[in-house]
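A quick word before the example. In earlier lectures we treated sequence and structure as two separate objects. From today on, think of them as two lines of the same record. Here is Membrane protein written that way.
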Amino acid sequence: MKMMKLNKLYIFKIVSVGLLATSLSCSDDYLIDQKYDGLTSDIVYSDPTTAQATVTSIYDALQMDIVEGNMKGMLYPNTYSTLDFYNIGSDTFFNTYEVPTDFDGLNQLWIKMYSGIVSANNAIPNIQNMIEAGTIEEELGNRLIGESYALRGIYFSILASNFGGVPLVTGITTTSEESLYTPRSTQEETFQQVVSDLEAAVELLPWSYTSDNVGRVTRGAAEAYLGNAYMWLGDYNSAIAAYESLDGHYTLEPDYLNIHDYDNRNGMESIFEIQMFSASGAANWGGNDDNMNFFQWFTMPLEIQTYGGYTVPTAQFFNSFEAGDVRRDATLIGPDMEHPDSDINISDYPMVQSNYGGINTCGTAAAPWNPEGRSGYYLLKFWRNPLVDASQGNIYSDQNLILLRYAEVLLSLAEAHYRVGNTATAESYLMQVRNRAGLTTLPTGDLLDGILEEYRHELGGEFSTWWLLRRSGDHENYIYDHFGITIPAGKDIMPIPQQQMDANPNLVQNPNY
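And the structure line, produced from the sequence above:
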C-alpha cells in the first residue's frame, strides 16, 4: 500500500512507526484497490471519485497482511483462548493464557486498526466540507461519512474486545505534542465511543448496495456492531433495539453448510465480511497480495500438504456437540469422514493418491491423520476452496472471511432478553438457531449456560467466540467448568503490544503482563 500526505503529515506514535493520515486507493468493482500517487488534499477532496477512494482505503485495515493481523490478531484469540483449538506451531501460549507482549500478530492488528481509524478521522470532516461546498452530492457524501463512522466504530470495537480500553484518537490533524502520546481510555469509554460512531453511521448508511458496491459496510452491519457495543456496556434494552432492527433484512441460511461455501460470498446470513478478490482461487508462496488469505492452508491436514495445518481442533470439541447437531459435520472433520462439500474430494489431492491409496476420508479410525501431536480432527469452515492444493504450492485462497453473521445476532438477542428477564423471548431466539442445527428442544440446565454453548457450537473456529464469552462475564467459570483450568489473573485479555508501549510512554499495560 503506497501512502501519501493528504492534509498535514499526521504521524501518530501509537504505533511503533508513524502512520500517515491516510492511504489512497479506489474501487471500480467491489473494493478492489487501485493506487493513486501525487494527489494533494485539494484534489482528493474536490472530486467525488477520489473522495470515494479515500473511504475505500479505510477497508484496507482489514485486508493488508491477512496473516499477521486477521489470523494472529483476531482468529487466534477467538479460537485458542476457548481451548477448543490449539496451535501445533510456536504460538501455543494462547492455550495457557500467557500471550507474550511481543507477539507480533497483536502488534500488527493494533497498527492495522489504527491505520483505518486515522483514515476515517481524515475522511469524515473533509467529506462534510465537500457536502457544504457542493462538490459532492449530499446522498453520496453522507453515505461515505457513514461508512467512515461505521468502520471507525468497528475497529475500536475489535481493539477493545482484544485489549480492553485503548487510546481514543478521533481528530484529523494536530500540532499538539501531547496528542502524539494519547493515553488509554477505559474499556467502557472505548465502547461508548463505538456507540457514538455507530449511532451516527446508522443514520447515514443504506441497508444494501448495488452489485458494484457489495461488500461495503451497511446499516445492518452498523446496527449489529452497535448492539454488540451495548452488550459490552450492559445496556441490554438498547442492544435488543439495535439487534431487532435487523429483522426482515437478514435471515439464516437454511443449510448450515452453505454459510461458508466458497461460492456463497456475502450470502443471506452474512452481515459483514472481509472481501477477497484474487483473479484465481489459489496462489503459491510469494504470489499472494492483500486480496487473498491462507486460512485454508492453516487448517488442512498435513497429509494433504507438505507443511502447514497449524490450527487444530480438539477431540473434546468434536465430542461436545449434541446428537443430531448438523453443525458438527459442517464444522469439523475426523477419521473415516468424507468432506461434506461436494466440490471437495479428499481423494483428488495428489499426496492422498500417492501416500494413502486415494482414500476419500480424512484418515481412518485405524490410521488417523494425527502426526506431530495433532488430534486427527480438522476445521472445515475455511477448507472450502477446491483450487487450494498446498502440495502443489497453491496455498492462498480468495474465500471471503465472515466477521459477523445473523446467527450471532440471534444468539446475542437471546442473551440480551435473558439478561432483562424475558426468558420466553430468549428461548425463542435461541431455538431459531438450534432448529437450523437440527435440534428441536431447549438445552438442559441454566439458560445462560445454554446460550454460551450455542456461541461455542454455532461460531466455533470463527472470529468472535472468545470475545462473546468474555463479554458475558462468565468466561472464567466457563473455562473452569469445561476444562478444569483457572485462567491466570488478568490473562483473559490480550496484552498491549510491547512495541506500542515503547512508542508511547503514556500507555499502561494490562495488569499482570
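Notice the following. The first strand starts at residue 3 and ends at 4. We will return to this example when we discuss secondary structure assignment.
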